[in-house]
Amino acid sequence: MGQPKKPIAAEQQILSLGKILQTLRDEDDVQVLITTTIGYLKKQFDYQFIWLGLYDSVSKKIHGQGGITPDGETSYLKRSVLLNPGNLICQVVTELCPVGVANLRGEVRAPEWQEVAAKYNIQGTIILPIRYKDNCLGVVLLGSQRWGYLLTGDARAKLLIVIGELGVVLDQNQKQRHSQENSNNSTTESLLELLENLRSLTLLDKKLAAAVEAIDQFVSPSRTNIYWFEREGNYFWSRMSSQLVKIGREWNDQRSSVGITAHELSDVYYALAVNQLVWLTESGSSLKSHIQDKLLQRLGVRSLLAAPIIWQKDLLGFISVETSEPRIWSQADKSFVQGAAGLLSLVIPTENLENTIGQIQQNHQLTNKFSQAIHKKQDLQQILHPCAVELLERLAATRFLLLEYDQGRDIYQVIYQGVLHNRRFFKFTPTPLSEMDFNLLQNAKDAIEIATLEHDLRLFSWHPQLLDNGVRSLLICNCIQGDKPEVLLVITHESSHSWTTLQKELCWVVSQCLGVIVRNHQLNAISEEQQKIAQLFKEYPNTLIKSESENTESIALKQIADVLECPLSIVLTWNLGEERAKVIRGVINNHHFGIVADVPIFVERDILIELALAHSSYVIFKAYDVPPETKKWLTIPENGQVLVMALRTTDDSQPTGVVLLADYEGAYWSELNLNATVTLISQLAWWQSQNKITQRLTDKTEVLRDLNWYKHRRLEEIHRMSASVLTQIRDLGIPSNELKQMRYKLLLRQLNYITNSMTGVIKQEQWQLHLSWETMSVASLLKRTIERVDNFAKQQQLWIGVHGLTQPTEEAESPKSTSLSGELITAAGSFPLATAGDIVKIELVIYELLLSACTRSPIGDRVDIWCQRLDETLLEVSITDNGTIDPQLLALLNENTWKDVLTSTHLNQPPGLHFLICQNLIKQLGGQLQIYQVPDNRVVSRLILPLAPHNFEGNTLGNTLGNTFGNTSPFSQ
């Protein structure tokens, strides 16, 4: 065969016309009919303005239904036009003939269209009636922007055909609507008659039979069945049939095996449960699923109409109207069957009203029992057992499970299990919920029912365990509404089962009470743990303080192990510089846990110790994560876990050991207990640190006492010998030679001063310092200090320069310059700087600073001493050098915090120790000492001292000592 020829334009128009006509005939919706017609007119005819309206013969108006405009404005298309005699619209409606207008803008007989015509420039216009025989159904207005544009020939014929067909379809639709209204009247009368029959009958089965008979008379199906829902087994059985044969027995007797399960009904069951009318035919259904073929085959019919019988949101059954031939169910059929089902829903509850009231009362009493259990302090088994058994009986269930989420192990655990009829407890360890199930339970506001577990995807990860234990249906509730599903109530049944709304409401109320009970038990357990920990915290410091140092760690480890209730606790400890760690045993009370003797533990090679030292807090390892090197000396089972934590006082301090705790992997270590363990371990670290510091202080105090006693006794002996020598010199008398006489007097004077100065030290400073108050010029003070370091400076070839010893009376007139020889050139009218305080101690401080500067300075370099007055009360003496000093030592000296000289290696030995002593002395004298580096890398020792008043009368010490030295220094007054 050849390729089909492309249709010519005329054929295309005929095909398009046939297609629109077929569409109009197949459509029932009036709005779709109008939209389809307008679309065809827009596509086939060149008109810029189209308006279609339907005629209301009662109000004498034409109501706009839609159309098109050049700019898309729709406000004109929905307007209503009132028929006025003499207008063109009225002429078209009354005469049922089309009218053509050459220019709509100038047509006085169409005043209602003048605004539209002027806005869109509408001229050539056709107005056609939509009619069927002598009945006008509406009007179509077609407007063009060309003058006098009218349709002729084939185009006019097509337009009339389409409008004519639209009139036929609209007339049929109108008649059908009137017929349905009449049918509704008939349906109402039949339902009222059925209601009267139901009211006069007493037995339920007779009421069901009356309903079946009424449906048969109204609908005339092949068969009418009333299926009843059996919750035990989750299936429907035919309780009443139009053949007047009961498949089954009386209501309380054993049911017949003939029936259909809820799973077989599938989506039909879920639609009926939410009170939806369902119809099925071989060609389609009211549901979106495609189960009709399978279900119709199962029931042996070709068409089905089902209406639910519901009471208190519970599906009691449904009316099934069935035909053996294909049938399109009319609206009257649907309305009557649905109404009959509604009437049965109203009259059925009266049969079991007393039973329902009794159930409500029993549910209320059971709820009160669970509410009263909230305040009991017994364990869950004692509290819940009697209530759980009664709840299972009320719900006709077999097992009661209360689950709690274990965050540490990331699983749910059964904290209570109740059963009926001497059934055995089963082991159930549900895994965490999927995200979908988690959200489902968190947002749930009532009990969630799974009537047939193997056919439901909810809680899918739990299915294997539940099915293996014989569970086929269940109710599950989040015991804390709106919160994370951490406490769950699960009611199970061994067969497919459905629960009533009343039962699900009871389960939900009980679950909320259980949520409060479990939360109270959690709080009580936390409170008990807190009390236990609080008591331990009271005893723990006494343990550390009062215990003997040899076994303190062991006793502390036992108390730490009690917190986590673990069978193994040890400490790996070592001293600084040691390669091997030794084990201090605390608790080892399980043969599966232990330490292998005689296996060396290397601190720097063991990965477990390395990881513990690398973390500031604890680290937990599973047994399979423990390194092989560690397993050589540590014995733990395969399902064990290990906690390690370094013993250190601060994150930056040197660790003194590692605490190791071990237990089985299933052991639950709560966050509270872990925090308490961390605190106890930290306290043990502090005890070790303080113990070492105390021991160090004790040792150092003993050494210092010995040293002080020895030096003081030697000082006393020197004083005694000096006094003896001085006495002997005096006894010899003054030499006769004048030169020797002057020299003799000078030496005698110096020896006398030395002897007198030792007297104060011996009497007042045997075990503590004594601060005196003297004044001395800075020049004399520095001169004495420089003389003391003179020999060392000459050895190092150092040049010591002094600057600014005197200050002018006017601060602005203070020209300062320093010669290379170290001599200070001062301005006229200046006054010397002087300081006040314990001059001997100040001199020793300056000597220490100057000696340190000379010691660290390069050979052949220089050391500068700068003096200046800061204000009326303070003066500054700064020593600068180009030496090298440890930056860490400078940082420690300049910190404003407390300086731990026992732990710092920089401050517990010279020169840091000497600097720290100098700082403390100057602080006691009301001054400051700072040592730092400036940007050009010079080291500055800045000493701030009290300034003596301007009018001080000489100096109590400086004048005396200053005259005893020769002018051999670079000072010039």
From TrEMBL:
<dbReference type="Pfam" id="PF01590">
    <property type="entry name" value="GAF"/>
</dbReference>
<feature type="domain" description="Histidine kinase/HSP90-like ATPase">
    <location>
        <begin position="837"/>
        <end position="947"/>
    </location>
</feature>
<protein>
    <submittedName>
        <fullName>GAF domain-containing protein</fullName>
    </submittedName>
</protein>
<dbReference type="InterPro" id="IPR003594">
    <property type="entry name" value="HATPase_dom"/>
</dbReference>
<dbReference type="Pfam" id="PF02518">
    <property type="entry name" value="HATPase_c"/>
</dbReference>
<dbReference type="InterPro" id="IPR003018">
    <property type="entry name" value="GAF"/>
</dbReference>
<feature type="domain" description="GAF">
    <location>
        <begin position="205"/>
        <end position="348"/>
    </location>
</feature>
<dbReference type="InterPro" id="IPR029016">
    <property type="entry name" value="GAF-like_dom_sf"/>
</dbReference>
<dbReference type="InterPro" id="IPR036890">
    <property type="entry name" value="HATPase_C_sf"/>
</dbReference>
